[in-house]
Amino acid sequence: MLPKNLRHSTLKLTNQFQHPCTQFQPIQRCLTIAYLSTHSLCATSLHHSHSHRHFSILQQRKQPESESIDDTATSSSSTSNAPSKTNQDPNAVTTGNEKHIEVHAYRSLITIAPEPDQIKLDDLSLSFTERQAAKHQKRTHAKLIEKLDECSANHELDESEENLKSMGKWSPAIAYEIWHSPPEVYDKIYGFEADCEPPDRHNISWKWLYKLWGYYGEREVRYRCALYTYMKAQRRCMNEQFWEVFELENTFRVELQLLCLHIWFAKIRMIDGWGLQKGHKLCYKTFKMFFEQLPNRFGQHLSGSKSRWEQDCQQACLHFAVSLDHAKEDYESGDQQAFSKVIWNELYLSNRDMQHDLLFLWTEYILQELDRMKQVSNNEFLNGWWKFGPIPTAEDRTRVRKRIIDEFEDKDQNDDTILGSQ
Fold first, then answer.
1. What's the pLDDT tens digit per position in 342-374?
2. Which among 245, 278, 295 has a CA at the least distance from the CA of 398?
3. I need a surface site. Which of 142, 270, 281, 386 has the fewest CB within 10 A?
4. Nearest to 313 by CA among 185, 305, 388, 323
5. What is the pTM of this model?
6. Which of 295, 229, 311 is nearest to 262 (CA)?
7. Whether 329 contacts 315, CB under 8 Å
8. What is the pLDDT of residues 370-394, one digit of tens each?
């Protein structure tokens, strides 16, 4: 295509030649023919370059049909002896075995790197990224081999086999008792959903299928243990006997703290039974189950933003659980009223008008549940083959009150005896 300035000058000259003078007609005719032929040739070549490109960006250009037959035969005979390094079909799938692919748009080479574990680190042609990827792959592979060697050296069993072995050949008697007994209260939210594992589940004929599903894996066992613990605790806190005996306030706050108290009993059992590492995983799963079920269990008490409401509930429960942890440490150190202080501050909001004999009854109930949890084996606890102890009754409250009076009377008599001897 002609340059812009030349094209305009040619047209201007042509316009000047359009007059009746006959001596300029041959020159006018020649210039017009030259201009039209040049313009049509440039337009044809431009259209061909944009519409008839016979190669893709990663493929060699096909030879046009206008080339001579001799050139085609020569090029085909020369390329038949050497292996082809490019795909002639634009839809062909790249296998990854190609060394280089020529990019015609940029006239550069793109290197397809092999897998990182097949790269030689001493190769100077490697880029920084390829060398780092190969090093990372080799380190990961070495760690896996080392871990497998340790497992084979120690003859460690698979976690599913360990869990099955811990269950024994037959389930204990308490498993049949818990499984066939009715729930503690009628649960209008979760219905009659089971809160324990069916007895002798591991003795079924298709046990291999359960193992294949990962039913006896550590993760699934933790999930079922957390589910059974939560179901038992939330059914216990629905018992109206607590409100009758302990004179509790009929509010959502008290019910939530009562549920947190019984989950804390299970948390102490998990730490004592499995230590900090595995016990922490069980505790985390249990409290996670507890917090995830808050909208389902206490949805009728939801107010305001759901996320804000859940956050407030979680903070209140965790604060209560931490206070119980400190009270347990103080009680073991010799403070006999440690649990009474926490219950008075949290459940009764430091109410001075309450009957203080209830605090001693609460301490007795907490110690009873902690001792009862210690008697449950690990296998029974994981499978839900346990239950909370009996709830204190009005007779128990009368007994505790009488005991307190007797203790204070004996203390007064001892003080009088000491003063009389002096």
1. 999 999 999 999 998 999 999 999 999 999 999
2. 245
3. 142
4. 305
5. 0.61
6. 229
7. no
8. 999 999 999 999 999 999 999 999 9
Burial 375-394 (b: 16+ CB within 10 A, else e): ebeebbbbbbbbbbeebbee
Written as six digits, the tokens of 29 are: 């005719």
Q: Which amino acid, one-letter code, is at 274?
A: W
Helix 357-374 / helix 338-346 crossing angle, nearest 10 deg: 110
Q: What values do phi and psi take at 101, rounded to 5?
A: -125, 125
CA dist., res. 243 & res. 249, Å (int): 7
- CB atoms under 10 Å from CB of 168, counted, come to 11
